[in-house]
Design brief:
The complex is a heterodimer of chains A (291) and B (345). Chain A has 291 residues and is an all-alpha fold. Chain A has one domain (20-284). Chain A has 11 helices and no strands. Chain B is an alpha/beta fold. Chain B has 2 domains: 6-239, P-loop containing nucleotide triphosphate hydrolases (Rossmann fold); 242-338, Alpha-Beta Plaits (2-Layer Sandwich), CATH 3.30.70. Chain B is built from 11 helices and 15 strands. Chain B has helices at 58-65, 87-92, 110-120, 125-138, 154-166, 184-199, 211-217, 235-240, 256-262, 290-303, 318-326; strands spanning 6-22, 27-43, 47-51, 73-78, 81-82, 94-97, 172-176, 203-207, 220-225, 228-233, 247-253, 268-277, 280-287, 307-313, 337-338. In chain B, the strands form 3 sheets. In chain B, strands 6-7-8-3-9-10 form a 6-stranded mixed sheet, with helices on both faces. Chain B has a 5-stranded antiparallel sheet with strand order 14-11-13-12-15. Mean pLDDT of chain B is 86; it is low at 332-345. Classes of the chains: A mainly alpha (291), B alpha/beta (345). At the A-B interface, helix 1, helix 5 and helix 11 of A face strand 1, strand 5, helix 2, strand 6 and helix 3 of B.
Chain lengths: 291, 345
């Protein structure tokens, strides 16, 4: 290919691995600066799982009274229904923050016009999205840790039981496939240019299938298979099985963790590819700035 | 200034949008040709103006050249890089101010915004810091640059958006209506900085609907209408293509019947409403020889009970060039088109 114009410099741009990391770091820091300037936003993330867990716990006590623990053990294998609910609600906040933040980020940037500014810069998509997802990761892990600790005081449950390190491994590895889903969901937002109603519906579909308050064994077979095709279901059950006497889906921790690892290996690549293809199709027509 | 070599070469770029037309319970796909086979060279070191009414295709062309849109066909070379095959190097070669005061993070300060976008242009941190300090001085941002953008006036946001476009000190600068919402003083300052940047060697692509601004700043202009370039050249050359005496402006209360009769006068090529406020109309008339037709225009206006506040042969502007080429005004509302069959020829 022959250049048909003169070539001057690239201004002040110096493309290197250091400047690539600089993009991710700057996006990450900017996201935290922005969210911290909305008073209370992060605190609400942390409190929400405690409130969410309190609802079924109080409902269980109200309906089953002293028999609540026994009835629960019959269905799930553990009588510790309070910790079971707390784990469900806390992993749900991790899942919800990870899944929707990329979509919300895209939508907000579309509306403010900053998405076009980002797209007009030479920064690669993966560098910018890494900053956004790292932010979501840190924010969701903070919310998870805070909710578990505060929830354990409020509901008077002991967190330090079972295999704590294994439970953390299920959380951390379970987050990786969520990136892939969040990229694909971000692509959908780029396409449909609407986030709120889509997320409102998807939020509760996700909560339902990952079994935040109940074991998925209560589902009929078809729904159970649907639930099992969704990584957060494995993440939630893995954490519960590590800490409580709940069964792993495949009977042993390493097989369940292997399934999550397989999701982690495949979904981010699939999600990122979907994102790039959608972006290209949109640029062929109306462009990313239209909303 | 030498303008011998192109720094942007556009080859046969076309862009078609597909949109959905919604009728009574029916949706139909509709194709809109926003750019039709546009070819153009922009020379290294020139200020190049893109002029045209809303919807003419200026912004679409700029969005294609800044990689925000993919052309349906055709290509371009920018700073030695191919538009489609070397997107990232094209982006690193340009600075853009495309969306006016939009495109800034309102919860970040002006300085944080500049730092953020500087990082996105791969500018090392120490260089970024120096560049931001330089821009704060150059554009007189010190009074507000450390406040969050949400507290800025429209003019302050515009000047920060301009600073953002300069953050990477790129050889090519795209400025899309940069003085819109700026007060007179700020707009004058911006134009003066644009001239200085050009003297330093930057190539500037400038879109505006203000003809006087384009006339003052640009070495060459391209007038775009309905996705096609209909005129290209230095402003003086384009204006000299219309003889001085062939433009007449009339201002006053002018009934529509008078406008309809004026275009029937032999020697009148077209008559276009340039502006209409408070019941007063500014009518631009392009004719073959204003000295000959002026008495006939006055006769018609008197017969139709028009109130004439001002009537005079005018110095030709770039808007007159557009009117002469298209038979339409550059103003947003182009419904008031009164043109005889042979207009625009």
């Amino acid at each position: 290919m022959t250049a048909k114009t003169v070539h001057k410099n690239l201004g002040l741009s110096e493309i290197s691995w250091r400047s690539s990391l600089g993009v991710t770091k700057t996006v990450l820091i900017a996201r935290f600066k922005i969210v911290l300037r909305y008073k209370g936003a992060i605190v609400f993330d942390m409190i929400l799982p405690v409130i969410l867990a309190a609802l079924p716990i109080l409902l269980g006590v109200a309906i089953a009274g002293q028999a609540a623990a026994q009835n629960f053990e019959d269905a799930t294998g553990t009588e510790n229904y309070k910790l079971y609910m707390l784990i469900g609600a806390s992993t749900f906040i991790v899942v919800t923050l990870m899944l929707w933040l990329v979509g919300y980020w895209i939508r907000r940037e579309m509306e403010t016009g900053t998405l076009e500014s980002v797209y007009a810069s030479p920064a690669k998509r993966v560098e910018v999205l890494s900053g956004v997802t790292l932010y979501a990761l840190i924010r969701s892990l903070m919310a998870f840790a805070f909710a578990m600790v505060v929830g354990s005081f409020i509901f008077q449950v002991d967190l330090f039981q079972g295999e704590m390190a294994l439970a953390l491994a299920f959380v951390v590895i379970g987050i990786i496939p969520l990136w892939g889903i969040s990229f694909a969901f971000g692509a959908l937002i780029l396409k449909v240019k609407e986030a709120d109603s889509l997320i409102q519906v998807m939020q509760w579909v996700v909560a339902f299938f990952m079994g935040i308050f109940f074991p998925i064994t209560v589902f009929p077979p078809f729904l159970r298979y649907v639930a099992l095709s969704f990584p957060p279901t494995w993440m939630t059950n893995g954490v519960r099985a590590s800490l409580l006497d709940v069964a792993y889906f495949f009977g042993t921790w390493y097989l369940d963790l292997a399934v999550l690892l397989a999701f982690a290996a495949v979904l981010p690549l699939v999600g990122y590819t979907v994102f790039l293809r959608t972006e290209r199709r949109i640029k062929k027509n109306e462009g990313v700035g239209q909303f | 200034m030498t303008m011998s070599e192109p720094i942007i070469a556009i080859e046969n770029i076309s862009k078609t949008f597909t949109s959905k037309e919604r009728g009574k319970g029916r949706k139909r796909k509709k194709k809109v040709e926003a750019l039709k086979d546009v070819s153009l060279e922009i020379f290294d070191g020139e200020v190049f103006g893109l002029l045209g009414p809303n919807g003419a295709g200026k912004t679409t062309l700029i969005k294609c050249l800044t990689t925000l849109l993919l052309p349906t066909s055709g290509t371009a070379w920018i700073n030695g890089f191919n538009l489609q095959k070397e997107e990232n190097k094209v982006r690193a070669s340009i600075g853009c101010m495309l969306m006016g005061e939009r495109g800034l993070y309102w919860k970040l300060t002006g300085r944080e915004n500049l730092d953020y976008f500087g990082a996105l242009y791969y500018i090392p941190k120490n260089v970024r810091r120096e560049r931001i300090d330089y821009l704060v001085d150059l554009l007189e941002l010190s009074d507000f640059v450390d406040r969050t953008v949400e507290t800025y006036s429209s003019g302050q946001k515009m000047i920060l958006a301009f600073a953002k476009s300069l953050i990477n000190d790129a050889p090519i600068l795209f400025l899309d209506e940069p003085t819109v919402t700026m007060d007179v003083h700020a707009a004058r300052n911006l134009r003066s900085i644009v001239r200085s940047l050009n003297k330093e060697g930057h190539t500037i692509i400038y879109t505006t609907h203000l003809m006087a601004e384009a006339d003052e700043l640009c070495d060459r202009v391209a007038i775009i209408d309905r996705g096609e370039i209909i005129a290209l050249g230095p402003p003086s050359e384009l204006k000299s293509s219309i003889p001085q005496e062939s433009v007449v402006d009339v201002e006053g209360v002018i009934p529509e019947s008078a406008r309809n009769r004026i275009v029937e006068i032999p020697g009148i090529r077209t008559a276009v409403v340039k502006d209409e406020t408070n019941g007063k109309t500014m009518l631009g008339i392009i004719c073959d020889n204003s000295r000959r037709v002026l008495p006939k225009i006055i006769d018609v206006l008197v017969e139709e009970d028009a109130i004439i506040e001002y009537i005079s042969p005018q110095e030709v502007t770039l808007e007159d060039v557009f009117i002469a080429k298209t038979g339409r005004s550059l103003s947003i509302d182009t419904r008031e088109i009164v043109t005889p069959k042979d207009a625009g020829k």
